Amino acid sequence: MALMRVSSPHAHGTYSTGMVMRQVLLATVPGVFVLTLFFGFGTLVNVLWACIVGLACESVALLLRGRPLAFYLKDCSALVTCVLLGIALPPYAPWWLIAVGVAASILMAKQLYGGLGYNPFNPAMVGYVVLLISFPVQMTAWAPPRGLGDVPGLWEALQACFLPARYDAVTMATPLDVLRQNQGLLLEDLWAQTPQFGRWAGIGWEWVNLAFLAGGLWLLYRRIFTWHAPVAMLASLALMATLFYDGGSSSSGGSPLFHLLSGATMFGAFFIITDPVSSAVSVRGRLVFGALIGVLVYLIRVWGNYPDAVAFAVLIANFAAPFIDHYTQPRVYGHGKSGGAG
Question: Which of 256, 12, 248, 21 is CA-nearest to residue 124?
Fold first, then answer.
């Protein structure tokens, strides 16, 4: 297989893989804090249990492959995958659901392909989609946000995870799901009659997205990734929502601001599609990659069968990433477009 010709520079600065991963983990703190504030301790329990299972799966895979544990575990890539999956899962998910998702992410989507740097698909999103397709009931059981119900404490969160049979869960449809299932109400009436909706999007979800936006901007400031893919995704999503927004009829897909501040939009834009392994690598390629994901997110949200579509959009774009890179790679210095000497 011919190597792709990509012009210099090839150095990634002074950041090691472990340092980059630790900064990504740090950047998730605002989003996790706001999720905990509005939905209780379920996300924290998800993340902690996912990390325990993920490190165990990573260790077993490395031992079976004859690789040194310390060298590969200290890059924190497994922790990042587990934290991202734990954030994406509904709070108060049962322990076995989290374990299955983590195993799919670490063993199937990462180690099966050779480990970090070889996976063609985002591992966290592979685990999420496996769970969403296999266990749709558990994956759509979101707790009501603070203000619409009692927010469970830490003990209730631990019970929900490890003793789900003893925990009486109260769930509520997300704003994206409510909008997709709208039956003839104008958006103004739907907003007035549905308690989940806040000022711009869903109660709690607005601040969750803004918190992940803040974490993503900090990563941009630290130059962990470039702006091209996140901005392209958000711009294309906003453009699609603007083009198809009809002012709020009963068949409306929602305003641009609603889509930008709902579901996993900011989380996906800054923490998922920026994965350097499974995304496009050229500058133009990242723009195309991000724009494709934004368009797919809107199409699936409005006309698909799943209210939030970030995971599916990312995996489809992962399929297309090599094709995108092939046609957007920069011209090698000294060569014309035909490949001959310039």
Answer: 21
3-state secondary structure of 341: strand
pLDDT digits (tens, 9 = 90+) for 72-120: 888 899 999 999 999 999 999 999 999 999 999 999 999 999 888 899 9
**Structure pTM?**
0.89
147-156, long-range: CB < 8 A, 24+ apart: 147/203, 147/204, 148/172, 148/195, 148/196, 148/203, 151/38, 151/39, 151/40, 152/40, 152/41, 152/42, 152/92, 153/40, 153/41, 154/41, 154/45, 156/40, 156/41, 156/92
For the chain, the domains span 16-172, 173-330
End-to-end Cα distance, the chain = 25
Q: Model confidence over 116-159: pLDDT tens digits?
A: 889 999 999 999 999 999 999 889 888 888 877 778 888 988 98
Q: CA dist 304 to 67, 72, 163, 176, 327, Å?
A: 42, 39, 34, 12, 29
